[in-house]
Write a structure and sequence with these properties.
Shape: elongated
CATH topology of the largest domain: Immunoglobulin-like
Helix content: 10-25%
CATH class of the largest domain: Mainly Beta
Strand content: 25-35%
Oligomer: single chain
Structural class: alpha+beta
Length: 155
Amino acid sequence: MRSFDFTPLHRAAIGFDQIADLMDRVLTNEVSQPSYPPYNIEKTADDAYRISIAVAGFAEDDLSVEVKEHTLVVAARKAEEDGEKTWLHRGIATRAFERRFTLADHVRVTGASHENGMLHIDLVREMPETLKPRRIEINAAPALENRGENAKSVN
């Protein structure tokens, strides 16, 4: 296995901490990614996205959605059921989970909804005005009349 040490990068690059952290996350030794619960990510508009997570068996009170330092954290913990039930077959998994999504710069969560066993999280990318491309107007050069007067005085 390859192992990279990004410590020198952390010391030498000021303001690029996110790049180093992203590289660390990508190159971690964790080979297996959790597959529960299943989820979809769709692009709903040019700068809008939706994450849909299958959360069958969980109520709204069992779910939590938080944003911490460019990371969207979705967690679920099923409340203990009152009384004992005898299960003949239990195929719907309601085990606790925590799923993390790394958000790009300027992406913010606009809302979340829970319907028909699906948790939908809406996101939008909002580029600040300072980062948007802007057109620079080109001004005309100073009048050529001054150049003509200088040429007459030389002769």
